[in-house]
Task: inverse folding
């Protein structure tokens, strides 16, 4: 199950514990080896590539942690390699069956219960559905001949709730991020089983328990009754949007231990994913705008999660009023260094590293200076020579 | 089309505010309860809370991004609240479960007048967050001893789900805001209630669009704010609005904001959006609670995009924490803050205590700092943003 393990080097300190599951191959659904259940669900070609992309991002040094990566567990079921179940794709990865998932979740909880400053990241991609009021996730063996219909599916709420602290585990990672990259449609074919079949609970937990503080954020790839989308043999839109967001479009200035740095928080991720998903939906001409849903306990400006090595690039749109031929815009950074000089048109678009800048211009005889923020993902500036007489700087 | 009809067809804000203090079947505080009262007592804050929230919106209607089109108020104040706020007397209404259902239905119809409308729901009163099942809101005739315990309790998720657009209500307001400002139920009762069903607000089959024959996707931008964490306390002082409401009004009064567009100094366009409300509530609520030695933190759920609720006439107030690097020079460092017209926005100050906390208008500033200690003189300057509700500045001296 473990594809990354740095517990030995981290010792007693906090770490990030990740669980990634990508289920693209379902042997008992249409297109599989032994199709038995026809719920209108077919094989998925974007689930495994997405899970691998998230794994690569996390493990292969792109993650700039708030806390070091301690463990990563990876479960895969690939549509392209049914016989090998894709476990050879990454050393140590396991097949995304129910029993492996339960084991991985159990181990994740034990690791997360060692330090309150640890973090948990769970990314699940594959088929999902709303069943009554529950969101369920279908594992590889869903629809198989053993057990009830929903035996090989899991109840998402039980996973999220079960990773809270309880009297048996008074210490628990207080920052937890869940990415549920799956459809949230209600399947009419499952309605007859509402009373008889239950998804598997990942954990039990005491019903009346004292409050433990944790910052838990659950990102759904779709709203209730909506589909999640993926590019055939490519990434899911949600996964792609998440990776783009982590690369910078969700960044904001963080101050940690006196140091200021561009980084991503649970709340800034929401805006970033939403933005990127909508850009992708427009590009792909999807029938309706893609809407990510987020729930959870958001504290402050969100839990810091990932730092960037450099400021992300921001598209800055500068509108100059009145537009004047031969006007020149000079932009300096916060340290007073010249960044760029441009011939100004009425509308100008430039790309700048995120940060704060001083813009100088001479328009219709007025010397204009204006401080502006270049904040991800886009910034819009209005330089208006009509209203602001310049005072020296 | 007459003017009134015209107004109702235009996008507007549709309010539904419920504040229940005077529960018919709960004992006053300090008196023993009944079998069905489950340890709960009457309250002396929710009706005032709902009223103050409503009045704030009415009194600041010029700032709202849309006019208030319709208002539904269900307020059941305690004698103490009526004493504090006599104006409440004009708004006293039956807040029974049936009346709640009738009003919710009316509000739903009104909010379905235009997709660009905004629907706002605020509930203050007793509530319960069950561990696995949904949050429920207890109505005025709760604990009447008839039927199941939660018969007069409305499922919050049912109300929310029923406000989605349907084939019959395709013009439902796509921007919606929900505030559930509810006291907790004693934890020892949570287990017994976990297994009980509360009452849905709508018939679930009405939401399936079977009659209309088409499915409309739920494309609302509709965050929910719960005023406390699951299982945690939600506080109010008797005869005063809840702490959550106080924090919310601080936010609306400019304690938070999102910059829409950057103009020259003083000409930025600021709004209070649902997202900036979340930032602001997470900042102000713990502080309001700390003023009475309590801890309270809100929980929010997010659906859809950020949207603006009101325009701010001036930049929001930002708490700025100034730190100096190297730290040992902090108490010998003088800082000057200017806007981009070179006007000094604050008198120069020494960074003592360190970090030095001050307040500024949201915006961007030029900062000059000089640190002098003995023969050591260092200086620093740079551009900084003051982003609501609070910002940390690190001034590096070289």
Result:
């Amino acid at each position: 199950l473990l594809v990354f393990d740095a517990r030995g080097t981290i010792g007693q300190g906090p770490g990030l514990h990740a669980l990634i599951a990508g289920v693209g191959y379902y042997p008992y659904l249409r297109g599989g080896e032994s199709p038995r259940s026809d719920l209108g669900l077919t094989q998925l070609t974007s689930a495994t590539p997405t899970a691998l992309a998230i794994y690569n991002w996390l493990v292969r040094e792109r993650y700039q942690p708030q806390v070091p990566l301690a463990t990563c567990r990876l479960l895969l079921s690939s549509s392209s390699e049914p016989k090998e179940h894709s476990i050879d794709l990454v050393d140590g990865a396991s097949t995304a069956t129910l029993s492996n998932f339960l084991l991985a979740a159990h181990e994740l909880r034990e690791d997360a219960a060692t330090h309150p400053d640890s973090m948990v990241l769970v990314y699940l991609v594959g088929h999902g559905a709303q069943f009554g009021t529950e969101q369920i996730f279908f594992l590889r063996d869903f629809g198989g001949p053993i057990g009830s219909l929903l035996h090989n599916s899991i109840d998402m709420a039980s996973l999220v709730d079960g990773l809270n602290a309880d009297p048996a585990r008074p210490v628990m990672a207080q920052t937890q991020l869940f990415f549920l990259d799956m459809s949230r449609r209600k399947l009419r074919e499952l309605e007859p089983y509402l009373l008889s079949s239950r998804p598997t609970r990942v954990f039990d937990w005491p019903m009346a328990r004292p409050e433990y503080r944790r910052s838990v954020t659950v990102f759904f790839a779709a709203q209730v009754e909506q589909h999640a989308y993926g590019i055939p043999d490519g990434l899911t839109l949600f996964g792609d949007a998440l990776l783009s967001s982590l690369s910078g479009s969700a960044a904001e200035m963080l101050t940690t231990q006196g140091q200021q740095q561009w980084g991503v928080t649970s709340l800034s991720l929401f805006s970033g994913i939403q933005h990127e998903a909508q850009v992708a939906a427009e590009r792909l001409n999807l029938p309706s705008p893609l809407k990510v849903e987020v729930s959870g306990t958001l504290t402050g400006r969100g839990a810091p999660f990932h730092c960037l090595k450099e400021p992300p690039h921001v598209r800055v749109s500068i509108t100059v009023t009145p537009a004047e031929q031969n006007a020149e815009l000079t932009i300096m950074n916060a340290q007073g260094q010249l960044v760029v000089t441009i011939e100004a048109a009425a509308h100008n678009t430039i790309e700048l590293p995120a940060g704060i800048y001083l813009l100088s211009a001479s328009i219709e005889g007025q010397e204009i200076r204006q401080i502006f923020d270049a904040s991800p993902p886009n910034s819009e500036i209005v330089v208006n020579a009509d209203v602001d007489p310049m005072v020296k700087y | 089309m007459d003017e009134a009809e015209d107004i109702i067809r235009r996008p507007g804000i549709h309010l539904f505010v419920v504040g229940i203090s005077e529960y018919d079947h709960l004992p006053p505080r300090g008196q023993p309860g009944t079998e069905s009262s489950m340890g709960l007592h009457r309250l002396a804050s929710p009706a005032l809370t709902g009223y103050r929230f409503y009045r704030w919106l009415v009194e600041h209607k010029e700032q709202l991004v849309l006019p208030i089109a319709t208002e539904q108020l269900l307020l059941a104040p305690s004698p103490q609240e009526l004493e504090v706020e006599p104006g409440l007397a004009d708004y006293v209404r039956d807040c029974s479960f049936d009346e709640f259902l009738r009003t919710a239905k009316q509000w739903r119809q009104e909010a379905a007048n235009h997709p660009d409308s905004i629907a706002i729901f605020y509930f203050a009163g007793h509530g319960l967050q069950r561990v696995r099942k949904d949050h429920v809101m207890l109505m005025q005739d709760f604990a009447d001893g008839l039927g199941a315990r939660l018969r007069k309790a409305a499922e919050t998720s049912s109300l929310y789900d029923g406000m989605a657009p349907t084939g019959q209500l395709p013009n439902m307001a796509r921007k919606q805001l929900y505030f559930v400002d509810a006291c907790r139920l004693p934890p020892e009762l949570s287990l017994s209630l976990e297994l009980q069903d509360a009452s849905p607000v709508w018939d679930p089959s009405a939401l399936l669009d079977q009659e209309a024959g088409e499915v409309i996707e739920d494309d609302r931008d509709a965050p929910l704010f719960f005023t406390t964490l699951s299982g945690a306390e939600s506080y109010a002082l008797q005869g005063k609005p809840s702490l959550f409401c106080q924090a919310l009004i601080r936010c609306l009064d400019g304690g938070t904001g999102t910059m829409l567009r950057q103009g020259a100094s003083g000409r930025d366009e600021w709004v209070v959006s649902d997202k900036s409300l979340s930032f602001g509530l997470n900042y102000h609520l713990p502080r309001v609670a700390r003023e009475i030695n309590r801890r309270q933190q809100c929980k929010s759920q997010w659906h859809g995009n950020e949207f603006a609720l009101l325009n701010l006439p001036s930049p929001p107030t930002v708490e700025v924490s100034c730190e100096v690097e190297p730290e040992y020079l902090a108490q010998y460092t003088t800082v000057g803050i200017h806007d981009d017209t070179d006007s000094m926005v604050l008198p120069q100050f020494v960074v003592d205590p360190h970090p030095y906390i001050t307040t500024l208008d949201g915006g961007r500033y030029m900062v000059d700092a000089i640190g002098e200690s003995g023969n050591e003189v260092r200086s620093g300057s740079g551009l900084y943003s003051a982003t609501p509700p609070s910002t940390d500045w690190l001034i590096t001296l070289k």
About this structure: Chain A touches chain B through 59 residues (CB under 8 Å). The first strand of chain A starts at residue 2 and ends at 5. Confidence is low (pLDDT under 50) at residues 82-86, 388-393 of chain A.
